[in-house]
Design goal:
Length: about 450
């Protein structure tokens, strides 16, 4: 397994990556990516073992509900690239039995490649969301044929792909981009039914980074985002050659949707785990700032905190139910329940902004206007800041200042904006979670129950 230091060294390859109109020469020292690289390196050190043959525990296929629960527990607090690696690998493990049955040669390539990833302790991103062009038109009817990633040339030893995948978390810091079709492709759209693994430094691949990371030098008043940074990337595939052994699907349109479905499940499970953690954080911040303001016994404040508590508890309940009702494939690979995973993800995402509103409402305007830690260190300002930032005298002015920073960072600044959009769009967006939830809900039972209650009798 790699150490953090070896991971950092591995980034010194031919990747082309950009930010704010310039090429990043060194991801390890660039101010916009430095901390994200450090976090990934820490993730490597956390799991490192020098035992021969040791593998990242996040990549071990769970064979029991307990093993699945343990692996979800391991995800807590790891960097986002460890998350996307886990999600990508679990996605491929989930589709394997379906490929096995019809295309055993493709399934064998997937197995070989997963072993390659595990043996070399690589980090992987999920490159699924296409540019998409005109949203109402399918890939085959777009004015721009490259609006969805497609095969533009087939050779005896592989294919050449062209297009772009958007919003790809951590693509500039990963070793491998797992390219998958974003939706079901129809007959005639064979060129778009392409799933493959592309090295992040393959000729023709460029990434453009966006980040919520604070761009100034002193980031101490960003206590949340300074520990949770990861760029999201616009990934361009400008005629990229992919050798046969890295191709997992090429033209089998009937299988094009299974990748997106499996990815959605694992991505949303990871999202629910993150949201359960963040929801508890919102509760803790609300309670602490209510105490610091001297309002923790006031009725409307207590009610809002109760709502936050119910929100957090229901996300955790959904996560537990998704694990407790897990299913397994024919070869014993255990995966979470779709209905509970999607319902919990939807609840956590859809209600997040209301909960953020409660927190801001309780906290007050200093969420935006509290001076920084740097200001606190100016001798002629220090006592004034301590004095006027004090609310309830049982809590120091500095602690109340730091709480305001944490709340601003979490829900009202660049990282807060990222949360706002990510909750609505990630994991395929709220619409996708509504569709999957409805598909897996036992509708027939509910309908029968309602018919009986209404005196309609059983359905013919
Ligand atoms: C921070 C962040 C990180 C992400 N990370 C990743 C990642 O690592 N890998 C990855 O592959 N993706 C990633 N995503 C992408 C995410 O899954 C998409 O943003 C999401 O699926 C929506 O796609 P879109 O952005 O193209 O928006 P659109 O598809 O344009 O959706 C916008 C709205 O239009 C609706 N809509 C779109 N098409 C239709 C239609 N035909 N009919 C009716 N309504 C329609 C949608 O339901 C939605 O309400 C990430 C997104 C964000 C914001």
């Amino acid at each position: 397994m790699l150490t953090g230091e070896q991971y950092v060294a591995s980034l010194d390859d031919d990747r082309r990556t950009y930010i704010d109109g310039r090429q990043i020469k060194d991801l390890v020292t660039d101010p916009t990516t430095r901390i994200a690289v450090e976090l990934v390196a820490q993730g490597y050190d956390k799991f490192h073992s020098s035992e021969p043959g040791a593998r990242n525990p996040l990549l071990t296929p769970p064979k029991s509900v307990e093993a699945l629960r343990d692996i979800v527990g391991l995800l807590r607090g790891v960097d986002m690239l460890a998350h996307t690696t886990f999600t990508s690998v679990m996605t491929l493990l989930t589709v394997l039995p379906q490929l096995d049955a019809t295309y055993p040669e493709l399934a064998e390539r997937v197995r070989t490649h997963l072993n390659f990833v595990a043996d070399n302790d690589l980090r992987v991103t999920e490159a699924i969301t296409d540019a998409k062009g005109h949203r109402a038109l399918p890939p085959g009817q777009q004015a721009d044929q490259d609006a969805y990633v497609r095969v533009v040339e087939r050779r005896p030893d592989g294919v050449v792909i062209r297009g772009a995948k958007l919003h790809i978390t951590g693509a500039s810091l990963a070793h491998e981009l797992f390219v998958m079709p974003t939706k079901k492709m129809s007959a005639g759209e064979e060129d778009y039914a392409i799933a493959c693994a592309v090295p992040a430094d393959a000729p023709g691949v460029s990434t453009i980074n966006t980040t919520y990371a604070f761009r100034g030098e002193d980031d101490r008043h960003y206590p949340m985002s300074r520990k949770r940074q990861m760029p999201d990337c616009f990934v361009i595939f400008d005629d990229v050659f992919v050798p046969n052994e890295r191709i997992f699907l090429d033209g089998q349109t009937e299988f094009s949707a299974i990748f997106a479905h499996s990815l959605g499940l694992w991505e949303r499970l990871g999202g629910v785990g993150e949201m359960a953690h963040d929801a508890d954080m919102l509760v803790g911040l609300a309670q602490l700032i209510a105490e610091a303001n001297g309002l923790s016994r006031v009725a409307h404040v207590k009610e809002k905190i109760s709502e936050l508590v119910i929100y957090a508890t229901l996300i955790r309940a959904g996560l537990e139910a998704a694990l407790a009702n897990a299913h397994s494939t024919a070869d014993g690979f255990v995966y979470p329940d779709e209905l509970y995973t999607n319902a919990a993800k939807y609840h956590g995402a859809a209600e997040f902004n209301v909960m953020a509103r409660h927190l801001i409402d309780i906290a007050g305007g200093s969420v935006l206007t509290a001076p920084t830690i740097g200001d606190l260190e100016v001798p002629e300002l220090e006592n004034h800041i301590r004095q006027y930032m004090t609310g309830n005298p049982e809590v120091s002015g500095e602690d109340r200042l730091r709480l305001m920073h944490a709340i601003r960072d979490m829900v009202a600044d660049a990282f807060g904006g990222w949360h706002y959009v990510t909750n609505v769009q990630s994991g395929g967006g709220l619409y996708a979670q509504r569709i999957v939830t409805r598909k897996h809900y036992p509708m027939a039972e509910a309908v029968e129950m309602a018919r009986e209650a209404a005196g309609l009798g059983p359905r013919e």
